[in-house]
Design a protein that fits this description.
The chain is mainly alpha-helical. It has one domain (13-136): Hemerythrin-like (Four Helix Bundle (Hemerythrin (Met), subunit A), Up-down Bundle). The protein is 83% helix and 0% strand. The protein is elongated, with a radius of gyration of 17 Å. Bound molecules: fe (ii) ion.
C-alpha cells in the first residue's frame, strides 16, 4: 500500500496536516528509492531523516494533547501508539541494516499502513477534540 496525500486524510488542524503531508512525501521517497534498487546506505539515510521528522511531528501533537483538558483516555491511547511506533521503527531499522531488502519491504508496508490508520482514526479523534475545545472557547467568549 502506498499513501497519497489528499483531503481524505485532512484533520483540519493546519500544523498537523502540513506535517502529515511532509511525512507522506518522505514515505514515498523511501518507497521510490527502494523500488529503484538504491543501496542500503541511501535507504537508511532517508529512514534517518524520517525518524527525526517523526519525533518532531509526535512532539507537536503531544504538545496539543497536553493542553487538552479532560482527555486522559485519548492522551493515554495516543501516546501509547506513538511509543509503539518509535519502538517498532527502531527495531526494524536495525534489522534492515543486517538483512536488507526483505525487512525493508516489510518496514515500508508497516510505515504506510500504520500512518494511514493512525491519521484516519487517532489523529482525527484528536482533531475532533481540539475542534470541540475551540467551539467551547468561542461560546465562553461571548
Ligand atoms: Fe498521532
Amino acid at each position: 500500500m502506498r499513501i497519497t496525500w489528499g483531503t481524505a486524510l485532512e484533520t483540519g488542524i493546519r500544523s498537523i496536516d502540513l506535517q502529515h503531508e511532509e511525512l507522506i512525501g518522505m514515505l514515498n521517497e523511501l518507497d521510490e528509492a527502494h523500488g529503484s534498487g538504491k543501496s542500503q546506505t541511501v535507504l537508511d539515510d532517508v529512514l534517518q531523516r524520517l525518524g527525526t521528522y517523526v519525533a518532531f511531528h509526535f512532539a507537536t501533537e503531544e504538545a496539543l494533547i497536553a493542553n487538552l483538558p479532560r482527555s486522559e483516555r485519548h492522551a493515554e491511547e495516543h501516546l501509547r501508539q506513538h511509543g509503539n511506533f518509535i519502538e517498532q521503527l527502531t527495531m526494524m531499522r536495525a534489522q534492515a541494516k543486517q538483512d536488507g531488502p526483505q525487512t525493508m519491504s516489510h518496514l515500508i508496508d508497516f510505515l504506510n499502513e500504520w500512518l494511514y490508520e493512525h491519521i484516519l482514526k487517532t489523529d482525527r479523534k484528536l482533531a475532533a477534540l481540539l475542534h470541540g475545545q475551540t467551539a467551547k472557547g468561542h461560546e465562553q467568549g461571548r
